[in-house]
């Protein structure tokens, strides 16, 4: 018999309300024990006084309890939600009382959602989307998570799995009842479907990793010579003093990062050590880190000191098509420079620069419509699927073609956790009238 699990579902201690959720075969009994009520109205808030079943001590007064009998609950099991007063002692007392009910224990991280998956309430991509929604810090992260939670990926992958399983069924039938001596491998009439599917998968994979980048944040590195004004610009963009500013060259050594929300996109902005030749070991390590940050960045902001006649050659070497070129210290620069001019001292050009950065970031995500894969896990499984289809299309043996289709289905099914090849074959052959 499964354990009954419970956990505090709301955030940290001390809030107006705290929600404790209980799920499993003993959930309804826990409601009865703690409230001394015999009856309940399903899915309707009930005002209750909670008392420790053993000591009869009051745990909370005028709490709210909701009972969701399974399977019509999030986990699919009997579930009870207690809305308590959010004080530390109330919560601790309640958790202790629950832990003393036999076969009840504290839930492990993610265990409610795991049970929802195991009971067929959602697929793995939807479960991952719930985690992403809870972690979402910006609007676009939220929208991506909601799209996935609504089953955007699940529907796409299920559609592909249906195509694959139908083709596989026909291939199996052709092996069982071969028609004359047609060429080997995948049956000719089935080929176009697999070629289309394979193309769709490769197009879906060719997405500039934007789903993963949106989950993890877009990396932007500020690079430039010592004293170009990198740390000053970082502080101006972040609107707070995160990096030390000094006229002493070589002040910044570690890569300093701030998280920004630009137009709903999550951005990790990194200030780096100035690029130059140095004998100082610590500074040299800082410069190595700056170069790594520049290499890993989705976008670079290359700073040139607007008061200098020459543009720094080390910085110039790192400029590519994903680089914004910015001239600093416009308040004291005499020379008229082309491109973006900013002053971190007066704030001139900072808003314009922010707009340009936001536009460049939005550009990264501009793309064809349709659901986006959001995890390396999805990418790896889809790559396996596509490779299996490559092999399926090139083999000369019908049995090997069928085996490759089966491998493709299995890889695809591992993304949603829903498709099991054997179940599918059973299902398909049941309405296939093969015993004719
Ligand atoms: N007048 C003026 N001075 C600036 C500006 N930005 C930076 N500085 C000065 O330039 C020096 C180097 O700045 P810092 O931000 O530490 O440069 P970093 O080495 O590239 O990080 C400091 O003395 C700053 O006060 C600016 O926009 N205008
Ligand atoms: Mg600096």
Structural description of this entry:
The protein has 3 domains: 4-118, Probable tRNA modification gtpase trme, domain 1 (Gyrase A, domain 2), CATH 3.30.1360; 152-207 and 372-430, Up-down Bundle (Four Helix Bundle (Hemerythrin (Met), subunit A)), CATH 1.20.120.430; 217-365, P-loop containing nucleotide triphosphate hydrolases (Rossmann fold, 3-Layer(aba) Sandwich), CATH 3.40.50.300. Helix 4 (124-135) packs antiparallel against helix 5 (139-149) and helix 7 runs antiparallel to helix 13 (376-394). The mean pLDDT is 90. By secondary structure, it is α/β, with parallel strands linked by helices. The strands form 2 sheets. The chain has a 6-stranded mixed β-sheet with strand order 3-4-5-2-1-6. A 6-stranded mixed β-sheet has the order 8-9-7-10-11-12, sandwiched between helices. The chain is flat, with a radius of gyration of 30 Å. 44% of the residues lie in helices and 18% in strands. Residues 230-231, 243, 251-252 line the site of magnesium ion (MG).
Short recap of the structure:
With 436 residues, the chain is of the alpha/beta class. Helix content is 44%, strand content 18%. The chain folds into three domains: 4-118, Gyrase A, domain 2; 152-207 and 372-430, tRNA modification GTPase MnmE domain 2 (Four Helix Bundle (Hemerythrin (Met), subunit A), Up-down Bundle), CATH 1.20.120; 217-365, P-loop containing nucleotide triphosphate hydrolases (Rossmann fold), CATH 3.40.50.
């Amino acid at each position: 018999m499964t354990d009954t699990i419970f956990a505090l579902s709301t955030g940290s201690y001390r809030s107006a309300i705290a929600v404790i959720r209980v799920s499993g075969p003993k959930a309804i009994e826990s409601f009865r024990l703690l409230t001394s009520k015999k009856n309940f109205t399903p899915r309707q808030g009930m005002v209750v006084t909670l008392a420790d079943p053993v000591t009869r001590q009051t745990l909370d007064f005028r709490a709210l309890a909701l009972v969701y009998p399974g399977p019509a609950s999030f986990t699919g099991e009997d579930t009870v939600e207690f809305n308590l007063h959010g004080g530390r002692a109330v919560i601790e007392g309640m958790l202790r009382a629950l832990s003393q009910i036999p076969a009840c224990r504290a839930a492990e991280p993610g265990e409610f959602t795991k049970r929802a998956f195991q009971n067929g309430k959602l697929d793995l991509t939807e479960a991952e989307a719930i985690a992403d929604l809870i972690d979402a810090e910006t609007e676009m992260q939220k929208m991506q998570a909601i799209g996935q939670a609504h089953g955007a990926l699940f529907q796409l992958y299920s559609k592909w799995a249906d195509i694959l399983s139908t083709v596989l069924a026909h291939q199996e039938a052709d092996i069982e009842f071969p028609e004359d001596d047609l060429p080997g491998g995948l049956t000719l009439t089935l080929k176009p479907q697999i070629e289309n599917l394979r193309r769709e998968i490769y197009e879906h994979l060719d997405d500039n990793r934007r789903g993963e980048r949106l989950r993890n944040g877009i990396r932007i590195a500020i690079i430039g010579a010592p004293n170009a004004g990198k740390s000053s610009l970082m502080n101006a963009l972040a609107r707070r003093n995160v990096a030390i500013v000094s006229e002493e060259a070589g002040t910044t050594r570690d890569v300093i990062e701030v998280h920004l929300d630009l137009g709903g996109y999550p951005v990790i902005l990194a200030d780096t050590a100035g690029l130059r030749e140095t004998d100082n070991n610590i500074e040299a390590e800082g410069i190595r880190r700056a170069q790594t940050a520049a290499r890993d960045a989705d976008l670079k902001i290359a700073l040139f000191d607007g008061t200098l006649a020459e543009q720094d050659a080390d910085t110039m070497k790192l400029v590519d098509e994903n680089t914004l070129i910015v001239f600093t210290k416009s308040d004291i620069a005499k020379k008229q420079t082309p491109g973006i001019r900013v002053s971190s001292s007066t704030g001139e050009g900072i808003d314009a620069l922010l707009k340009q950065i936001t536009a460049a970031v939005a550009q990264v995500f501009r793309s064809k419509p349709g659901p986006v894969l959001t995890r390396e896990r999805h990418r790896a499984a889809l790559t396996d699927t596509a490779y299996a289809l490559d092999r399926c299309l090139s083999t000369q043996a019908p049995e090997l073609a069928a085996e490759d289709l089966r491998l493709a289905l299995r890889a695809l099914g591992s993304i949603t956790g829903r498709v099991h090849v054997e179940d599918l074959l059973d299902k398909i052959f049941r309405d296939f009238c093969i015993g004719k």
